[in-house]
Design brief:
The chain is globular. Strands 1-8-7-4-5 form a five-stranded antiparallel sheet, with helices on both faces. The protein contains three helices and eight strands. The protein has 190 residues and is α+β, with helices and mostly antiparallel strands.
């Protein structure tokens, strides 16, 4: 007997969340990875008391962007000179151009990783750990990473991003858990 189970078609909402995830990975990885640029387009955001930390803009990332460092970046391995987003406030269904420049003060080798998270209100949409060196391919770079780096990346944001405010956090570490950089942003889509 041959049993075939029909596979249900993905809903538009799921497809839009999947597109948001891909855009978020690209944005955060591009920006966070190198000099923290995918919003678009994952470890965890916490709400309430910890949400204040995401809104804290005590350590803004230089350039035209909504990014902030998670804490004082003076001891981070990556010194970010600037990150420019065009447009500064990303818009669904539009292209986002990311230009970033920075300097790695120590060699970053295989085993480095990114903790990335995206929250929509109190709901965690993305919480993941990604291999930094694998993700660097998105910006045409490869490990080891060292010295001055600059890149420009265009990311197409999906039209189906549900309206609301998204909290994005990218915390990047070496294999030995030394912080490379940590970036956060609140992004609002209408």
């Amino acid at each position: 007997m041959n049993l075939q189970v029909p596979i249900p078609k993905m809903s538009t909402r799921f497809e839009s969340l999947q597109g948001l995830f891909q855009a978020a990975m690209k944005l955060c990885l591009a920006v966070a990875l190198l000099f923290l640029s995918t919003l678009a387009a994952s470890k965890s955001f916490l709400f309430a008391a910890d949400q204040k930390a995401i809104l804290d803009d005590s350590f803004p990332v230089p350039g035209e962007n909504p990014l902030n460092f998670c804490s004082d970046p003076t001891k981070d391995i990556l010194t970010i000179d600037n990150v420019d987003l065009d447009p500064k406030s990303p818009e669904k269904g539009k292209d986002l151009v990311i230009k970033a420049r920075g300097n790695f003060t120590a060699k970053v080798e295989k085993g480095a990783y990114i903790d990335l998270s995206v929250k929509y209100g109190v709901i965690t949409l993305i919480k993941t750990e990604a291999d930094l060196c694998e993700q660097m391919k998105e910006v045409d770079e490869k490990c080891p990473l060292e010295g001055a780096k600059a890149f420009t990346k265009k990311v197409s944001l999906p039209k189906q991003i549900p309206p609301g405010t998204y909290a994005v956090l990218a915390d990047v570490y070496t294999e030995d858990d030394n912080r490379i950089t940590c970036l956060k942003a609140m992004v609002h889509f209408t």
